[in-house]
Design a protein that fits this description.
By secondary structure, this protein is α/β, with parallel strands linked by helices. The chain has helices at residues 13-28, 44-52, 79-87, 98-112, 126-132, 169-182, 196-208, 224-235, 271-285, 305-313, 332-335, 344-348; strands at residues 2-7, 34-37, 56-58, 69-72, 91-94, 116-120, 139-142, 159-163, 214-218, 239-243, 260-265, 288-293, 300-302, 322-324, 340-341. The strands form 4 sheets. Strands 10-9-11-1-12-15 form a 6-stranded parallel β-sheet, sandwiched between helices. Strands 3-2-4-5 form a 4-stranded parallel β-sheet, sandwiched between helices. Strands 7-6-8 form a 3-stranded parallel β-sheet, sandwiched between helices. The chain binds iron/sulfur cluster. Iron/sulfur cluster binds at residues 12-15, 74, 97, 99-100, 165-166, 195, 197-198, 225, 267.
Length: 349
């Protein structure tokens, strides 16, 4: 059995930042209950680990006592929520990914210029709810080419489309083509809204999954980018499964024991869950580990302004703090074995 670990996989800079924000707030305010609006990132293990440290996750600010600290999740929020937090005298720390904030800024700018915004994405996803909230009167959600005929368009010359950051680039492309056909003068955003992490993880799947018998994506069912990875694996003809952790592995997926299995992880899945799966395959199935480095990532974010203020109030220097994600170091102790670099001939042997 061969396990092909692809890079990049797992945490993106936005998820790293959101988790670091909650960690930092817990460190700054020991003993105080920290509230997080919505799951900080869409991963069951991350949420459970924070709950075990006393964090309370809420879906309504009404659940947060006046005067408390509330962290907004990586997916962003509508501005009405920020106003509600201020009215309720909450200290709000915003862990919205800067790449989501960029889409919000575009929505605000185009709405001010009088555009109607067609927002490509999944209607009930937290990110879409947040972006839509910037200009609700001027925004309509498009989640498939089929819904284009039901759109209410005032002026087809004053239309722009934006996209959710975690869509499949293939699916979004199909919808964008259909929009362009229906509205030839629709304006495109200056750069793609689908983020670098989503794009890179999807490219790695398209490149490597066709050479494998099975693809395992580590991530939660409510993680949009993880579900997209699984769908892309299926689209390129490789059986693909999405699991939260090693306990969900099913031996029926690898009946011969001689399979080549690609292993990747959604942007919100922690690496220790990946390493446990590797260790399982090495120890229980004698698997060899292979590394497939598809692309490098060097995106770096600063800390959110609201966190910097809180750190200053507590006398913590934040000047040199940056958020970036290094590729994981693979050790035999954590992964069961050290990997060899992938060769196509090695895979096909
Ligand atoms: S997946 Fe992209 S948009 Fe979402 S948190 Fe990560 S970097 Fe930001």
């Amino acid at each position: 059995m061969k396990i092909v670990l692809v890079n990049p996989r797992g945490f993106c800079a936005g998820v790293r930042m959101a988790i670091d924000v909650v960690d930092q707030v817990l460190d700054l305010l020991p003993g105080e209950t920290i509230y997080v609006y919505h799951e900080i990132v869409h991963n069951r293990h991350i949420v459970e680990r924070f709950i075990s440290r006393g964090v309370r996750f809420v879906e309504s600010l009404g659940e947060v006592p006046s005067g408390s600290i509330v962290v907004f999740s990586a997916h962003g929020i509508p501005p009405s929520l920020r106003e509600e937090a201020a009215q309720r005298n909450l200290t709000a720390i915003d862990a919205t990914c800067p790449l989501v904030t960029k889409v919000h800024s575009r929505a605000i700018r185009y709405a001010r210029q009088g555009y109607q915004i067609l927002l490509i994405g999944h209607e009930n996803h937290q990110e879409i709810i947040g972006t839509m909230g910037e200009a609700p009167e001027q925004t309509q959600v498009v989640d498939s080419p089929e819904c284009i005929s039901g759109l209410k368009i005032d002026d087809p010359e004053k239309l722009v489309y934006l996209t959710q950051t975690t869509l499949s680039t293939d699916d979004a492309g199909v919808i964008i083509d259909a929009l362009k056909e229906a509205f030839p003068n629709i304006k495109a955003p200056p750069t793609d809204d689908i983020c670098y992490a989503t794009t890179n993880r999807q490219e790695a799947v398209r490149g490597v999954a066709p050479m494998c018998d099975l693809m395992i994506v580590v991530g939660s069912q409510n993680s949009s980018n993880s579900v997209r990875l699984m769908e892309i694996g299926e689209n390129v003809g490789t059986r693909s499964v999405l699991i939260d952790d090693v306990s969900e592995l099913d031996p029926a997926w690898y009946p011969s024991g001689d399979e080549t299995i690609m292993l990747t992880a959604g942007a919100s899945a922690p690496e220790d869950l990946v390493s446990e799966i590797c260790k399982h395959f090495v120890n229980q199935h004698g698997a060899s580990l292979h590394l497939a480095d598809i692309s490098e990532e060097s995106v770096e974010f600063g800390l959110p302004l609201t966190l910097k203020r809180l750190m200053e109030e507590h006398g913590v220097d934040h000047k040199d703090r940056r958020i970036m994600v290094e590729p994981p170091t693979i050790t035999a102790a954590e992964y069961g074995s050290t990997p060899v670099a992938l060769t196509i001939s090695g895979l096909n042997a």
